[in-house]
Structures are given as structure tokens and as C-alpha cells.
Amino acid sequence: GQQVMQIPQYQHVQEGEDFTTYCNSSTTLSNIQWYKQRPGGHPVFLIQLVKSGEVKKQKRLTFQFGEAKKNSSLHITATQTTDVGTYFCAGGFGNEKLTFGTGTRLTIIP
Amino acid sequence: NAGVTQTPKFQVLKTGQSMTLQCAQDMNHNSMYWYRQDPGMGLRLIYYSASEGTTDKGEVPNGYNVSRLNKREFSLRLESAAPSQTSVYFCASSVVRPNTGELFFGEGSRLTVL
After folding, report:
1. Are the Cβ atoms of B43 and A95 closer than 8 angstroms?
2. pLDDT at residue B85, rounded to an integer
3. How far is A74 from chain B (nearest CA, A)?
4. Which strands sit side by side in the sheet containing A19-25, from one edge to the other?
5. Contact B99/A92, CB-based, under 8 Å?
6. B28: pLDDT strictly greater than 90
7. Residue A22 above 90 pLDDT?
């Protein structure tokens, strides 16, 4: 089936530590998107990756798309309290649908 | 710029009651979607409309119906609400066809079915 697995489900880090969340699919993805949802809010688009091996950076955030286009990661360097929220990946399978991962909830310990 | 607007924001229903969630976007987007979000389940697609005049089932369509009223509006109807439909519902839209572009989400509608 077209499932996207995301780990970990929860991550608690000290402020200033790094954070990484991973997404995996058993089948090749056409693209992958990342979203952030603040507590009580709605998902907000962060980025889309399309090419095999693609790496994109947004300030302290680094996004990677695997060579086989079956996995992706989001890495945050030196977390800040503003990074709190749930991070979702969403995989495209070329059939007009995006399948969301279950999300990683990041909490920051000041 | 309103973006994607959903109403109502909160609703409590009794089992068996019906209701319609309304969604409108002012960005001239072609595609619109309804998702539900449950703890530990992520976002699951209920129905989507790739363009005005078309609708298609997503992962969890049972118990729901949709109407793409025009390019701006996409409504979700629960004909006979069940406790399993207690959830947060998000409407979203995108410029291009599904799966290829950024999704813009509304603020969500929290539904409780007793």
C-alpha cells in the first residue's frame, strides 16, 4: 500500500540540541513535502523535494531526499523554542494523492 | 488575504445528526481537499476535488459526502454522524493538480460526536 512511515513519534530535546525526523516509503515517491503544525494550529508548508538525492536548506533546517526516492529527513540544527510543533512529511505517489506520515512532535526543554 | 476559510470552527453533534462543513478559498486554486486529523494518525485524506466539477475518494471516504459547489467552495457533509467521526477536519487547497504543489490549509474544524 501507499504508506509513509515517520519516526520518531515524539522527540524531546534541550534547547540548542539538534533534531531529526525521518520518513520512509516502501515504494518510490514522485516527490515529498514537509509541513509544520504548531500546537493548536494548522499544517503549514515548509518545502517540496523532487529530485533524487536532493538537499535543501532553510536557515537551520536541512531537508534531504534519498537517492532511491524512498526516504527523506528533516534536520534542525540548534533548536529554539519557536521550533516546537509537529513535523509531517507527505509523500506523492504519482496518483494525484499525497499521503501524510504520522508526524513527529517536537518539544523543547528550555 | 483570507486564504482558506472553514466554518464552523467547533461543533458538537449527537449520534445520527447531520451537518455540513463549509470551506472556501480566495486564491483561485484549482484543487481542494478535506482531511481529518486524529491523534497518532496524521492527516488522512477523505475526499478531494482536482478541479471544479470533479470529486474523488481519498483514504477514508466512508460516512462522508462532498460537493464542489464552484471553484471557490468545497463542502463536506456527514449524513448520520457517528462517534468515530469525532476529529479535527482540515480543508486545503492547491494551485495545481493534486500531489504536485503546496497545500494551503484552513484553520480546522473540531467536531465532537456524542
Report:
1. no
2. 98
3. 17
4. A4-7, A19-25, A71-76, A61-65, A55-58
5. yes
6. yes
7. yes
Which of A45, A88, A92 is closest, CB to CB, to B42? A88
- Whether A43 sits inside 8 A of B90 (CB atoms) is yes
DSSP for B6-41, written as a single string: EE-SEEEE-TT--EEEEEEESS--SEEEEEEEETTT
Whole-angstrom distance, CA of residue B50 vs CA of residue B45? 13
Give the tens place of pLDDT for each residue, B71-114: 999 999 999 999 999 999 999 999 877 667 899 999 999 999 99
The whole-angstrom separation of Cα A85 and Cα A52 is 28
**A38-92 pLDDT, tens per residue?**
999 999 999 999 999 999 999 999 999 999 999 999 999 999 999 999 999 999 9
- pLDDT at B39 exceeding the cut of 90: no
State which residue of chain A sits closest to B96, comparing Cα positions: A96
Cell 536532493 locates to: A54
CA of A94 vs chain B CAs: smallest distance (Å)? 7
